Amino acid sequence: MASIVGACSDTAGGPIPYDRALAAPDEPRIQALGEGYRIAPMDQLTIKVFNSKDLSDDYDVDLAGHISLPLIGEVAAANLTTAQLDAALTDKLGEKYFEHPDVSVGVKKSVGRLVTVDGAVKEAGSFPALGTLSLMQAVALAKGTSEDANPHRVAVFRTIGGTRQAAAFDLVAIRRGQSPDPAVYAGDIIVVDGSSVKALQKKLFQSIPLLAIFGPI
User: Fold this and answer.
1) Which of 82, 98, 190, 210 is the most exposed place for a label (fewest CB within 10 A)?
2) In angstroms, rounded to a whole number, what is the distance separating the alpha carbons of residues 194 and 201?
């Protein structure tokens, strides 16, 4: 195998031209969410229940993929279509609280075109990811880490092959050039560890070894 690699790397060649600057990439095409869109963690949903102002509101999907509604509490939402979540909520509300409940579910904000930066950063939020973006650049979009941050533990959550996966990185080592600055993509969720992170985020951090290769959580 080594001899084959060596032979291939002895000389330049092939049909791809060398020393020619590449033009800027095509602008990404923004498409409407299709009927088969599956809800992702950190999406924001609009849920309306006919004749119930208390239940009709916008709901954030947490990192674990759940939403929390009055009366029925926590409901799994991630990886469901809006129609499937609609049916699940209709069933739960119909068990005790409503007779023939009329529920509608819509996606108000999708993280599929955004990078979300949360945790111990100065301005957490979701930011457009229209081109190549590194972890350092993504954290900079959130105005950098806050005073209580632990920059040695920065988690990246990503859906790969339909499975929620995660890895942790050391931002200090990246800044010093001791570790590579990994690429991040639209749909990624980045959480910087620190004393102000939420209980759910802390729990998820416990399951991710530092600098782990992406693996299911």
Assistant:
1) 210
2) 10
- Residue 210's beta-bridge partner residues? 168
Q: What phi and psi values does residue 166 have, to the nearest 5 degrees?
A: -155, 155
The Cα 184–Cα 166 span in angstroms is 12
Distance, CA of 88 to CA of 190 (rounded, Å): 29
Q: What is the pLDDT of residues 6-42, one digit of tens each?
A: 333 343 344 434 344 444 433 444 445 666 788 888 8
For residue range 131-179, what is the model confidence (pLDDT) as tens digits? Answer: 678 999 999 999 999 999 999 888 888 877 777 788 888 899 999 998 8
Question: Can you read off the two tokens belonging to residue 138?
Answer: 């993504």
The residues that bridge with 60 in the sheet, in sequence order, are 44
Question: 196 near 145, Cβ under 8 Å?
Answer: no
Per residue, the 3-state secondary structure of the chain, as one string, reads CHHHHHHHHCCCCCCCCCCCCCCCCCCCCCCCCCCCCCCCCCCEEEEEECCEEEEEEEEECCCCCEEEECCCEEEECCCCCHHHHHHHHHHHHHHHCCCCCCEEEEEEECHHHEEEEEECECCCEEEECCCCEEHHHHHHHCCCECCCEEEEEEEEEEEECCEEEEEEECHHHHHCCCCCCCEECCCCEEEEEECCCCHHHHHHHCCCCECCCCEEC
